[in-house]
Input
Amino acid sequence: MNYQEILFEVSDNIATITLNRPDKLNAFTNTMMREVISAFDATDVDDEVRAVIVTGSGRGFCAGADLSAGGDTFSGGGSDVATKQGVPRDGGGLVALRIFESLKPVIGAINGAAVGVGATMTLPMDIRMSSDSAKFGFVFAKRGIVPEACSSFFLPRIVGISQATEWVFTGRVFEAEEAKNAGLIRSVHAPNDLIPAARALAGEIVANTSPVSVAVSRRMLWRMLGASHPMEAHRVDSRGIKERGGSRDSREGVMSFLEKRSAVFPDKVSDGLPDIFPDWEEPKFF
Output
């Protein structure tokens, strides 16, 4: 697909999605929303892709929503995608939900300013790392709106409710070191070291693990964030061990260890994942 506002490439089993409006600090638009969703659709069906990195071009990651419409920027709602009831869907939320459903692990390589949706779209990514020049801001109250991109779900789970409320209520922009200390990001890197560090981490996943096991594990970890009792996780774990324990990947994983060699996992994500969530229902918008 020919993209207008993102770049997309795959090398060494790693897909890189680059937000690409550098003259606008990669400000978020409906076009970018659709293209990011499309890119994740592409990575899900491509067995050559084992991990996804999301970053920005130029000196910013994403400076938030494109405000070129002035005071009417948010008057139409969150996007030009609406429900049958005519309620506009939040565009950042559509991206966040798509990342949440990714079958491949997602690493955010936050190279610069990540403000508004630029910060919230990173929350459903599995691992976030940043440049030491990056800044973060949940600035919605300063713009007279509220947090979006499902961040009222993700942010308190990542950094705790007290830190989440402080950042949201003040709307202040803060440095990478504060983000790291609060657990929002994993590590801080010199600008030229950020992408190599992200690729090294992605490469560790590619080299050592079963893609199907990673995809199933990703679903387990994210979905169990909303579990009401550890018994729910025990049920899922038990089904998962039963399903994967008899797989070709499991045999290969054990034999490669005993034979002291690298594993070559034969199972493919595109062949489908075991259904270990019989009680899981995708919520409807209304």
Observations:
- The CA atoms of residues 16 and 82 lie 29 Å apart.
- Residues 191-208 form the longest helix (18 residues).
